[in-house]
Request: fold
Amino acid sequence: MAMRAAGRWWPSARSLSSITVRSFSSTPRAWSDKSASKSLPMPDPGADSATSRFLEERTPYMVPTYVRPTPTFVKGQGCYLWDLENRRFLDLTAGIAVCSLGHSDPDITKVIAEQADTLIHASNLYHNAWTGALSKLLVETTVQSGGMKDAKQVFIANSGTEANEAAIKFARKYGRTVDSSGAKHEIVSFRNAFHGRTMGALSATPNPKYQAPFSPIVPGFKYGEFNNIEQLNDLITEKTCGVIVEPVQGEGGVHLATPEFLHALRRRCDEVGAVLIYDEIQCGLSRTGSFWAHSHRHFAGPEKSTAHHPDILTTAKALGNGFPIGATIVTGRVSAAIQTGDHGTTFGGNPLACRVAHHIVSRLSSPDLQKGVEEKSALFTAGFEALRNKFPDVIAEVRGLGLILGVQLSEKYVPRASEILAAARQRGVLVITAGEGCLRFLPPLTITGEQIRTGLRVVEEAIEEVVGH
Reply:
């Protein structure tokens, strides 16, 4: 049951399932954009709160794969989230680069409702109206945007890790068309990468923290150093069928590939007959200010070359703005190696997910939105540099492109990154980390200048609290 008073609501800890959220306080118990956040702290709910009682009833039934703070979110709108205590948070994470058009976007909600009332699933044994439409739009938009110049076909899956699993399988199948003996089977990836948690994608994620508990991993994977060109001749050989790389490493700490590195990867893949795979699950779909990260002028180099374009491109996250979907885009050379029965999916390509993604791609490819990303990036970056000047012993570096940005803490303060996150959260702003002590910022692309300034102010106060300046 929800108690409603003066436009505010509080669900009981007994039954969230009975609640239909219709309205939220216009003056939530949190800071407003113009208020001083320090005067209105938002401590995490205590042991005697409705949130804690709610969680005590439910978390014992959940496999403990995550350690979470206590705020429990029940509503989102635009760049804000509300929790069970009716407190509003400015979300600078967008659900980890997922909700690029913001939470509960009304047009997306309308598309979901219309399609759910029409057809949700019919299986991949039959055609539907939207799988092909989304595939066509992705290919055409990719080429028109200046990305992946030979894009030809698309496989629709349910997530980023599934998109990468498909890419790995397609690369190995391509390797067998080049060398039927199976010797051409090795996949190369790079340290600090994150490609997913299923066994194939995990095997391409060279992080002992993720791999060790599940070893032995899938054989045939080799690892190199990100942005190291000198190693490539020894790393990528005639046995290599595919190379997978993120143009911007997100989970690994917001590290950008150099244009020279991507061009060298493309050149070496061509020399040995391997396919080049770009994982743009986090950095793609206009998060950098261009539709695909690899087509951003940063990666093209001074000559605006397209010589570094991939054979396979994977995407997910923002593709559904929170609705599960992923996609693997391939060139004709790769698709020619794939035959009926080589891969499949039960839910991937269902008409609901594909119609939602079709709508989202149409909006994320807008030049006006992309221009706004670059303008907002400049505002964030200027603010981060000001913080670095104020806290030179705390902040070592500011990294990133567009609205995938990282503030790297100095070695001394790396262990205190979680304290800074908690201090920001308890002032109403959500930030996450990446790599070792990097504060990661992935806000909705629709964030406003005023919201950016508010977020920067709260982050500054959080750092001040933790480091004692």
Q: What stands out?
A: The two ends are 45 Å apart (CA to CA). The chain has two domains: 77-104+369-467, 119-365.
